[in-house]
Amino acid sequence: MIRVILPPHLRTLAQVTGEVRVEVPGEVTQRHVLDAVEQRFPMLVGTMRDRGTGERRALVRFFACEEDLSNEPPDAALPDRVATGEEPFMVVGAMAGG
Length: 98
Known about the structure:
This protein has helices at residues 8-14, 30-40, 80-83, and strands at residues 2-5, 20-22, 60-64, 67-68, 89-93. The chain is α+β, with helices and mostly antiparallel strands. The protein has a single domain (2-93), classed as Beta-grasp domain (Ubiquitin-like (UB roll)). The protein has a 5-stranded mixed beta sheet, with helices on one face. A hairpin with a 2-residue loop joins strand 3 and strand 4 (67-68). The model has no long low-confidence stretch (mean pLDDT 94).
């Protein structure tokens, strides 16, 4: 099971509290984790990634094991500690403005 921490506004939209857990068949990558989250919570489709291109939305960041993975290729393997469920994959709403 992959542990995923969503920002408060997405937890509200998905009607969940705390972290969510999803099964990811095959290699654990950003793309596969987000696919699993969107499959389980279809109301989140388009909130983290653009519906058309599948690219990360500008004000959404991805973190794992204290590393910003936002600019990593979506098909790159996530750290082993995420794949084993030891550490969560975090989706964070970025701050904007001045």
